[in-house]
């Protein structure tokens, strides 16, 4: 009875099969997403991206250090140097004209915080104005108050000035006082507040939550800053975080922007002391 040999694959087919097997076994290349914005957004983006990667494990987050700031990030977005920007203020008309779609992500209370400062029942707006003008210079425990300022064009400074006509004048007066500490961005301001005994200056509840900084946050006009008082309108001072995409966003940027409007992202925002837009 004739013996029929089992046909063997050709050497070319065997090599192709091995190559295909090796390709399947290779880990997928990471897909980078370049994001920057206001300094306080950096730790928030990290927390949001960790949740996003549960659905997109090949995605990789790239954030410039230090953050580019709101204006710098919007310029970088328009120039194609980043894929998504998170400014900490409303976009100017000329900025909006150079990019694609944008939307408000969330808001968080803007707060006055201190390392070691003691002030029973917080500040009234008149008392805050006295501090910024240099008429009230000591805490309740007689420790000197060391103000930490932001540049006049920064959104935090503009919010402080919007608190009252007296505060508008007082903040300008503080900027002209010699020897004042000046934070160049959100993160540097937080560092100055944390490491200056008796400090007092602006930051956000969201950044404090994300960083774990142990600072005292004060009531203003008898109202404590929180997501509840922010939502109720009893604490009106806030910092808004927006999302901006280029005119032709990458597929990954589109996916991340869509995720940011999901229930899972909103849960991360609320845990991070941010009130999602529309909530």
UniProtKB/TrEMBL annotation:
- Keyword line: Signal
What is the source species?
Zoogloea ramigera
- Keyword rRNA-binding among record annotations: no
* Gene3D superfamilies in UniProt: Periplasmic binding protein-like II (3.40.190.10)
* Keyword Signal attached: yes
Q: What is this protein called?
A: PBP domain-containing protein
Taxon lineage: Bacteria, Pseudomonadati, Pseudomonadota, Betaproteobacteria, Rhodocyclales
InterPro entries, sorted: PBP_domain, Phosphate_ABC_transporter
Pfam families cross-referenced by the UniProt entry: PBP_like_2
Point out the signal peptide segment.
Answer: 1-30
Domain PBP span(s) in chain numbering: 29-264
């Amino acid at each position: 009875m004739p013996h029929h040999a089992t046909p063997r694959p050709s050497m070319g087919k065997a090599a192709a099969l091995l190559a295909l097997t090796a390709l399947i076994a290779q880990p997928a290349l990471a897909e980078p997403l370049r994001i920057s914005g206001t300094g306080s957004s950096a730790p928030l983006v990290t927390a949001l991206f960790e949740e996003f990667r549960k659905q997109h494990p090949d995605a990789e987050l790239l954030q410039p250090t230090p953050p580019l700031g709101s204006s710098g990030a919007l310029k970088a977005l328009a120039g194609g140097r980043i894929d998504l920007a998170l400014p900490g203020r409303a976009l100017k008309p000329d900025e909006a004209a150079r990019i694609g779609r944008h939307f408000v992500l969330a808001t968080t209370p803007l707060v006055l915080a201190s390392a070691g400062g003691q002030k029973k029942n917080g500040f009234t707006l008149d008392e805050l104005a006295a501090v910024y003008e240099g008429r009230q210079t000591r805490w309740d425990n007689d420790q000197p108050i060391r103000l930490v300022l932001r540049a006049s064009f920064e959104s935090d400074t503009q919010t402080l000035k919007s608190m009252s006509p007296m505060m508008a004048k007082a903040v300008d007066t503080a900027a002209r006082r010699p020897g004042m500490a000046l934070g160049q961005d959100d993160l540097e301001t937080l560092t100055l507040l944390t490491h200056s005994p008796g400090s007092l200056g602006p930051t956000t509840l969201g950044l404090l939550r994300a960083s774990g900084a142990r600072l005292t946050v004060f009531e203003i006009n008898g109202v404590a800053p929180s997501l509840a008082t922010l939502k109720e309108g009893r604490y009106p001072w806030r910092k808004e975080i927006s999302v901006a995409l280029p005119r032709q966003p990458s597929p990954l940027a589109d996916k991340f922007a869509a995720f940011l409007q999901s229930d899972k992202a909103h849960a991360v925002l609320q845990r991070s002391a941010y009130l999602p837009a529309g909530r």
